[in-house]
Amino acid sequence: MLEVDQITTRYGAITALHSASLEVRAGELVALVGPNGAGKTTLLNTVAGLLRPATGSIRFEGNDITGTEPARLVRAGLALVPEHRRIFKDLTVEENLRLGGSTASAHDRRERLEEAADLFPVLRTKWTTSAGYLSGGEAQQLAVARALMSNPRLLLLDEPTLGLAPTMVDVVFDLLQRLREQGRTLLVVEQNATRVLQLADRGYLLRTGNIVATGTGADLAADNSLFDSFIGLEAHGREA
Amino acid sequence: MTKLIQTIVDGLGVGSTYALLALGISLIFGVMHLVNFAHGELITVGAYASYFFFLHGGSWWWMPFVIIGSAVLASVATELVAFRWVRNASPFTLLLTSFALERLSHALWQIFVSPKQRAFPKPAWVFNQFKVAGVSFEVMDVVTIAVTAATLALTAVVFKRTLFGISVRGAAEDFDAARLMGVRANRVISGAFAFAGLLAGVAACLILMRSPAAEPSMGSDWLLKAVIAAVIGGLGSFTGAVVGGLVLGLLETITRAYLPELAVGWDKFSTAVVFVLIAVFFVIRPDGVFKVSHAERV
Q1: How many angstroms separate the Cα of A23 from the Cα of each of A207, A209, A236, B192?
Q2: Residue B170 to residue A146, Cβ atoms within 8 A
Q3: Full strand arrangement of the beta sheet holding A63-64
Q4: Residues of A at the B interface, defined by Cβ within 8 angstroms
């Protein structure tokens, strides 16, 4: 469904991603893990069209989408829940959702608003509240609901549990599970590596801009040497 | 008392023109972080369009369409030929581009029409007077307030209810997030310029009905006041732009009406007094009345 072929992405003189390749097949939940600054967000933002790769190509459902505008990718069925959620704080919950469904027909948009309210009961109670007043967990649910408004076949999620209370982390992992059961394909960047790898069909380990390991979620989670190095690096990064 | 009521009505009249212009400036600032110093030129475009329309036998019945239509087209055109190419440049570059457009507009009217004022007929009925409870008003006062109220109501509906309006507000807060929702950058920015042109066109109608004349640099004075109004309200805030415009209009007319009573010759200082008050206000509240949390400082 998604084939990322040796993409390199730079911010000015800094190369954040070195010739990274990965593949997501239809119906899979693929996890992308790695320490801070490894290039996970860069990879997702490049796939979603916010960044343009210097070299390499990206294919989605067989079509070359390298360097395509995000607005066109949403219409093609690929949506991103960005890092830090980036919900529109000045808009109400309903307005956030309507904007998420801006590419759908008026009829579909109305139907999906209803579905979103059913899937996320907490949002229904805050329908006309400015999104800036939502708690972290509510805001995360809104961010996912908003992305689902375009009815994407491939959903990219960047750190969906970042900054959430433990009970909300459970809610988000349940949600990932449910989305997979709905038949959506998911590519998830997650700091909570152990947990997301247990859930994932396959995983990729990214370190300093390079894909250093790949395998089934269970394999990666069980591979102590790789995992220790990852954890070690992360701890090291935090000390520095 | 009579004088006070008339002064307030006059103030609201001038203030609503400022408000419509300030709203356009805030709107463009929201989506592009551009303080558009060429915005006042839309009034000039409307004025010359009216002048040529009258030269070719036009009448006031069609004027609103001519003025608003020309302002909308000119606004969209400035984005297409100028601002689109510097969209991702620094706010300073954007500011300079708008200054260049303003100067260019002045020069073009001077060269191709005339540096002198070109007058055209006024609509006869607007200065008819009528009395309510001993206070006399002009028809134009009512027209100004009614047209402004209707335009503001339309603006509120567009930005609260329509997908276009929500897209503009979303893009103003976080442009990349709006793109991720499927909002097309070109379309939302063009639309914002078109709507700002519409608001400037309505303001131009009100201005030209009172003083029907075209002059190359006529837009600049209005622009300066409108920018001040937008900044008083908090750049990027729509409510702020309206409040800022009305407050500025009221301040101006009230100081002009009441300063002369203090001492002979004081009325000459009314503009100075207004600017001093504004300066003091910014010392107290540098971000304006309605601070926009996501607006970066320019």
Answers
A1: 17, 16, 29, 40
A2: no
A3: A14-24, A2-11, A55-60, A63-64
A4: 48-50, 69-71, 74-75, 79-80, 82, 86-91, 95-96, 98-100, 102-103, 132, 146-147, 150
- Where in chain B are the domains? 2-284
Percent helix, strand and coil across chain B, each rounded to 5?
A: 75, 5, 20
Q: Which amino acid is at A26?
A: A
- CA A26 to the chain's CA centroid: 16
Task: Specify whether the CB–CB gap between A206 and A190 falls below 8 A.
Answer: no
The domain defined by B2-284 carries CATH number 1.20.120:
no
Q: Indicate which of B180, B184, B186 best probes the interface with A, i.e. most A CBs within 10 Å of its own CB.
A: B180
Beta bridge pairs of residue B138: B129
Per residue in A111-158, pLDDT (tens digit) is 999 999 998 999 999 999 999 999 988 999 999 999 999 999 999 999
CA dist B242 → B24, B227, B294 (Å): 10, 12, 19
What spatial distance separates the first Cα and last Cα of chain B, rounded to whole Å? 43
Q: Evaluate whether B186 touches A71 at the Cβ level (below 8 Å).
A: no
ipTM above threshold 0.90 = no
Residue A19: CATH number of its domain: 3.40.50.300
